[in-house]
Amino acid sequence: MTAYLFRRILYVIPILLGVNLITFALFFFVNSPDDMARLALGGKRVTEESIERWKRDKGYDKPHFYNDAAAGTDRFTDTIFFTRSASMFALDFGVADDGRDIAQEIRTRMWPSLAIAVPTFVVGLAFYITFALILAFFRATYVDVSGVIVCVAAMSISSLFYIIGGQYLISKLWHLAPISGFGEGVSALKFLALPVAIGIVSSAGANARWYRTIFIEEINKDYVRTARAKGLSELRVLFRHVLHNAMIPILTGVVVIIPSLFLGSLIMESFFSIPGLGSYTIEAINNQDYGIVRAMVFLGSILYIVGLILTDVAYTLVDPRVRLD
């Protein structure tokens, strides 16, 4: 186990370096610093002097990877890539184009994102699994068929429909929750209720149908028939045996959600005006703020890798046959 974890941690360095290189190329080759300067300065009708001044102030006037004008190690360190990317391995994300510290903004905005993502994840997961187990229990009956039809219909509808429809119905017509905004402390609960409910409902169809498929596959295996032959009730077979043995594919799917718990939902936070990391990322993309986007991509990569490692460790807990060497 220790050797496995050490190897996985070593893999993190080249992966994050590759992520940095791809992000850097997208911003500085596909979209040049001159384009960033024109956007920041207000369009195409700007002078070359103002563009050069903006690039110099931001440090974008240096070479990308190799500085011929410098000497010694400065040929590699006095470059845009090194000054903008190397510090991220120490979680120093620098400042945004508006001068605000990116790390401080992340620490501040992560809490609204977590306030939405954690309840949506925990309550949603319990609801999806329970609903899928009910469908599996009544498999091949009208309950199962009706549930699958509802799941397919729900997953065929765009998430924007749930957001806009929920805001119109719950907030505008019924006045049960604020249509947008955010508060501090206990007052934030009234702003979070609708986004959390919409997040659970909008993902219910795809997740419940996927979990149902997993449970149906497990139900047809030999160990389930053996458990039934011993006289165990169907509920005990489902919740003690089927659910336990289905945890590995469930954990595999859960790891994909882990980064979103911290990085927030881009669309949800934008529509509900929640000052989380999702809306922060959208604003940075619209403003072509390389520093913020680079930091969010880097942070998302770290969280995804950590999630993969935790998932592998969790495999050994739910299935003793799995060994990490």
Tell me about this structure.
The protein is globular and about 80 Å long. Helix 1 (2-30) runs antiparallel to helix 16, helix 2 (33-41) crosses helix 3 (48-58) and helix 8 packs across helix 9. It folds into two domains: 2-90, no CATH class; 102-318, MetI-like (MetI-like fold, Orthogonal Bundle). The model has no long low-confidence stretch (mean pLDDT 85). The protein contains 16 helices and no strands. It is mainly alpha-helical and 325 residues long. Helix content is 72%, strand content 0%.
Brief digest:
The chain is an all-alpha fold and 325 residues long.
Low-confidence stretches: none
Q: What gyration radius follows from the Cα positions, in whole Å? A: 25 Å
Cα(first) to Cα(last) distance is 6 Å
Largest beta-sheet details = none
Order of helices and strands: HHHHHHHHHHHHHHHH
Task: Please identify which CATH superfamily of the largest domain we are dealing with.
Answer: MetI-like
Would you count the extended β strands for me?
A: 0
Mean of pLDDT: 85
The CATH class name of the largest domain reads Mainly Alpha
Query: What number of domains?
Result: 2
Which class do the helix and strand fractions yield?
A: mainly alpha
CATH topology of the largest domain: MetI-like fold
**Proportion of strand residues:** under 5%
